[in-house]
Write a sequence for this structure.
């Protein structure tokens, strides 16, 4: 690993920590400040924060890897997600921003549900908070595995191990940097770092396919139309009806993802939700096109040059090291870490907010001061992170296989509930609780 690449990554880490310190001075005096940045997020920050915390390493690893392996038919997942994101911004965002403040200034999704349906308030807070904490601990573990795999693949023997494997060092480094700015700066730090990380991710996703097609590889990787695989550029090759429905309905899960929709609650005014929507959807569209282009162009390049990529999900890492100057490679690796870290930080903070607001202040210390609540929130961030590190320590752990279903779990448990709570005045607390439990149980049984 080139020292220039490592220096670029070190600079990225320092910027993230610096943002955390800035946020610490600006918005961590109260629970509303620590958990929602005082509901004063600018539209651009809210939009890119929602996008970056949503896409994670899937955007740079999973989707390009799927395109690389199977061809353009895998693009239906991205299409479905984009449509789901549009509906989420149009239906959920403005209503949740207005109603979460109107119903006793709710700071968390469980708290909003409890305030919306007071007759089942305690039960809704407890059940929904349990779902959030359990699923997000597993989700966070998956993100840490991504960090561990990056260090194991790209930084092998380039860093002092401190008695650890490259994989373990990657887990602890990723977790340590995320904890540094999340614990200190809270929601504002997470959102500002998400904004920076979102910009880095989008730039990387534009650079990569263009570099493959028009960089030093020249014609050896330039044409994306000459992949010697039948139907590679077909949207329907091998596609079944069930496969199509399964792919495009991924987007329905957006309505129930707490780490995404909580961003809507933090935008400074309802009117600015529409500005944030346009920014967020533009970012998502460009980023998805870049990921699709990377997978296809990467397959063309490796086929023409006889390069064997054993794990399709590593095509981003492989191309970064093969085609770019070490400084650019460092930037691209920073983009991958940004994708991973932006989601981890969001999940940690949402889990912490549920533990603090929906357990600690609800059952243990109802009279807790604002400063006490903020400090408990910081402790809860660390506790969830330690639990996730434990799960991630074994990359083959079966619990990580559940992550593929966590999106469905949140979507089924919270998605219909959030939609109806925001749009149907006649909905009852009993119906809300039944829907929450049924959605979680059905996904669990299906798994």
């Amino acid at each position: 690993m080139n020292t220039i690449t490592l220096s670029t990554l070190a600079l990225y880490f320092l910027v993230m920590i610096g943002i955390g310190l800035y946020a610490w001075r600006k918005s961590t005096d109260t629970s509303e400040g620590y958990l929602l940045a005082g509901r004063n997020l600018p539209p651009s920050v809210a939009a890119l924060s929602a996008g970056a915390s949503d896409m994670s390493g899937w955007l740079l690893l999973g989707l390009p890897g799927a395109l690389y392996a199977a061809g353009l038919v895998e693009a239906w997942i991205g299409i479905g997600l984009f449509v789901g994101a549009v509906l989420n911004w149009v239906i959920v965002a403005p209503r949740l921003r207005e109603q979460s403040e109107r119903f006793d200034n709710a700071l968390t999704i469980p708290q909003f549900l409890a305030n919306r349906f007071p007759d089942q308030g305690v039960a809704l807070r407890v059940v929904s908070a349990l779902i959030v904490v359990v699923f997000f601990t597993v989700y966070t573990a998956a993100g840490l595995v991504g960090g561990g795999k990056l260090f194991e693949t790209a930084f092998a023997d380039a860093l002092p191990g401190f008695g650890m494997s490259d994989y373990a060092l990657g887990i602890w480094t990723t977790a340590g940097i995320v904890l540094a700015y999340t614990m200190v700066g809270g929601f504002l730090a997470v959102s500002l770092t998400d904004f920076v990380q979102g910009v880095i991710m989008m730039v990387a996703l534009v650079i990569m396919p263009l570099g493959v097609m028009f960089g030093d590889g020249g014609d050896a990787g330039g044409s994306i139309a000459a992949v010697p695989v039948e139907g590679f550029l077909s949207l329907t090759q091998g596609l079944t009806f069930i496969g199509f429905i399964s792919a495009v309905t991924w987007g329905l899960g957006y309505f129930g993802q707490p780490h995404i929709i909580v961003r809507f609650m933090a935008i400074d005014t309802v009117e600015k939700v529409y500005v944030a929507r346009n920014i967020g959807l533009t970012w998502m569209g460009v980023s998805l096109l870049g990921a699709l282009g990377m997978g296809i162009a990467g397959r063309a390049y490796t086929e023409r040059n006889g390069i064997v990529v054993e794990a399709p999900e590593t095509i981003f890492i492989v191309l970064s090291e093969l085609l770019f100057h070490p400084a650019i490679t460092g930037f691209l690796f920073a983009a991958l870490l940004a994708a991973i870290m932006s989601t981890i930080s969001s999940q940690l903070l949402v889990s912490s907010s549920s533990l603090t607001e929906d357990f600690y202040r609800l059952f243990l210390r109802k009279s807790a001061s604002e400063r006490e609540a903020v400090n408990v929130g910081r402790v809860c961030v660390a506790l969830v992170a330690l639990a996730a590190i434990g799960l991630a320590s074994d990359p083959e752990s079966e619990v990580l296989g559940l992550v593929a279903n966590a999106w469905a779990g949140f979507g089924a448990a919270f998605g219909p509930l959030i939609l109806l709570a925001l749009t149907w005045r006649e909905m009852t607390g009993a119906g809300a609780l039944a829907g929450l439990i049924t959605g979680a149980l059905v996904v669990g049984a299906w798994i």
